[in-house]
Amino acid sequence: MTSEKKKAQSLTDDERLPVKMLNDRILVRLGDAEGERRSTGGILIPATAQVGKRLTWAEVVAVGPNVRSMESGDRVLFNPDDRYEVEVRGTDYIILRERDVHAVAAERLDEGSTGLYL
Q1: Is residue 57 part of a domain?
Q2: Of 31, 71, 78, 79, which has the maximum CB count within 10 A?
Q3: CATH code (residue 83)
Q4: 11 lies in a domain?
Q5: From CA 18, how far away is CA 27, in angstroms rounded?
Q6: Strands (DSSP E) along 1-118, which ranges?
């Protein structure tokens, strides 16, 4: 068997290749209950009860080389309509552009922050 056939066969045998984000792209993971939330009184509000547009928080998993404002592990606020969904190794992720992110929350941003905390 030639080396090209071996390589093609190994790729079809569910080999897991590394993934690298390009340019200004960000790979994020949503929380467990996307859309569901709790009121301050503890009442569970289902995703179907949402009125109007609501921004969503997610955790940054990977960033492209041209991303300047966020790092892996940060939480970002974005519009759920501006997203591309992808499945990597059985887990669902969302790919965003840096310009589509409205806010970043991270401990490293302590200086110059708004004074709001998650």
Answers
A1: yes
A2: 78
A3: 2.30.33.40
A4: no
A5: 14
A6: 25-30, 37-38, 44-45, 56-63, 75-78, 84-88, 91-97, 101-105
